[in-house]
Amino acid sequence: MARSLSATYGREVTAPPIPDVQDIALRKPRLQIPSTLESIVTSDHTERVIHTYGGHFLELTRALRGEFDEPPDAVAYPATEAELEQVLDWCDSNGYVAVPYGGGTTVVGGVSVPAEARGAVTIDMERLDSVLEVDTTSRAARIQAGIFGPDLEDALRPQGFTLRHFPQSFPWSTLGGWIATRSGGHYATNHTHIDDFVESVRMLTPSGWWESRRLPGSGAGPSPDRMVLGSEGTLGIITEAWMRIQKRPVFRATAGIAFDSWERASEATRHVAQAKLWPANLRLLDPAEAGRAAGMSGSEALLIIGFESAEVPQGALIREAVEIARSQGGSIDDDDILIDDGSGAATGRGGAVGNWRSSFIGVNAGTTNGMGLIGDTFETAITWDRWPEFDAGVRARVGDALQRVVGDAWTLSCRFTHVYPDGPAPYYTFSGMGTPGGEAEQWQTIKDAANQALIDLGGTITHHHAVGRMHAPGWRAQRPDLFETSLRAAKRALDPNGILNPGVLFDPDPVPNSR
Ligand SMILES: Cc1cc2nc3c(=O)[nH]c(=O)nc-3n(C[C@H](O)[C@H](O)[C@H](O)COP(=O)(O)OP(=O)(O)OC[C@H]3O[C@@H](n4cnc5c(N)ncnc54)[C@H](O)[C@@H]3O)c2cc1C
């Protein structure tokens, strides 16, 4: 990787040595683990190192430099709800910060220990990792929060079911993390967000248990599940949920349509979305992304359309979507439309779509960290009426920040990860060669420009990467003030001592319980 970066940027880039875990200096634990908890709580050096950071570029960079200023003082591994109660009681009665931890793939600082903590315990949920029940009649399953994506799918597969929720971080993230962050799966339309699959949730708070009733739908007041979804570990620790599951798809159809204009390609995407065909995939790559991730020329945009179903052949739907895209200027050979009629043997060539899929699934965070390369993504959503101006404004402002920070050698590209009838969810990727050691400040300048552009131009600070600590100021700028007042009141009711993830979503109350 260092060699390839040297060639790209015309300067010598070297890979930093990876520090030995045992050589990393940590402050002494600030708490004493009671003997009753010794079997499930540890202050082991390696465990504290592993749980210090999530998956953001800056965190990985700090880790590679051996900077571990705010490690948790202890890490708990409860294997039962009773053990989780004991751990949370211990934290609450001593005022220790409690950080719920799933797979640690947060890219917004969601599992960091705040500097103000007097003692902090990371509660790793990985031992609560089973599919407990499958209701084949209603098609729902009771699943524990600490289960990782592949294990969840392995457990449902023998009965022919799937949760069908595949964020790009699927192999390394957990059901509890998905619910806590309102994660977005890789399907582009219709049911793809974890929100859509939650039937009921069970969560432990310092004030007691919160469990909603299993229902296919309900119009009874504000939804308790909606309160848990996106709470990012600030209101309680999710232990399990009943999740809506579905039959595994067998009919599939895919096509990649090329456009010589980015604007016409987004118009085509809008028309397909508004035709309510609900493709599983409707992913638009701008020319830069299509060149990098799908082997295209670099001057054409690529619209990837995919359909799948457990019940119905998808050939007619893909042909209809392709015709809409063609009517907006897209081009594709009929032979490049890939159709699997349920036999598992697809007809057609598939073209650039296969390249893109391998590059998406093969994502590997952290391979360039510490080499001076500043690379990150930011994502948002915007209604169609504002889209073209929004995109131009974001590119101008972020491009300007990149130019100031790294000079001429930078890239900024965009794809749509999700598409709604009323607007797209654009996902921008930037990179540039900065100065090794100065990445944090340089990244911050670019990130500030991106955040400000999203908010000023009417978008959301995040579409599916969550708020965490990093997006808290942007979220403050876009939400109604009284909403935060209400949410803080709920936090005081559920977590009166303010021990759960202080600083995530919003600044902690200065004096807990004082308002
Ligand atoms: C390479 C990469 C690709 C990604 N792709 C996507 C994507 O496609 N879609 C997407 O939505 N996100 C994506 N993310 C972000 C991240 O994976 C998601 O936010 C994911 O839902 C986090 O799950 P986790 O189990 O790793 O949770 P963690 O990172 O451990 O925690 C995330 C937050 O949830 C809280 N939390 C965790 N478990 C619980 C629990 N049981 N109860 C209460 N609170 C809890 C934590 O305190 C923290 O605030 C990506 C991240 C990376 C590194």
Please give a structural write-up.
This protein is of the alpha+beta class. It has 4 domains: 25-123, Uridine Diphospho-n-acetylenolpyruvylglucosamine Reductase, domain 2, CATH 3.30.43; 131-247, Uridine Diphospho-n-acetylenolpyruvylglucosamine Reductase, domain 3; 251-361, Alpha-Beta Plaits, CATH 3.30.70; 373-463, 2-Layer Sandwich (GMP Synthetase, Chain A, domain 3). The chain has helices spanning 2-9, 45-50, 57-64, 81-94, 149-156, 175-181, 224-228, 262-274, 287-294, 315-327, 352-361, 387-406, 439-456, 472-478, 481-494; strands spanning 41-42, 74-76, 97-101, 120-124, 131-135, 140-144, 161-162, 198-205, 208-211, 237-244, 246-247, 251-259, 281-285, 301-309, 338-340, 373-379, 410-420, 423-433. A hairpin with a 2-residue loop joins strand 8 and strand 9 (208-211). Helix 12 packs antiparallel against helix 13. The longest helix has 20 residues, at 387-406. Bound molecules: flavin-adenine dinucleotide (FAD). Residues 54-55, 99-107, 110-111, 125, 145, 167-169, 173-174, 176-178, 180-181, 183-184, 232-233, 237-238, 363, 365, 464-466, 501, 504 line the site of flavin-adenine dinucleotide. Flavin-adenine dinucleotide binds next to strand 3, helix 6 and strand 10.
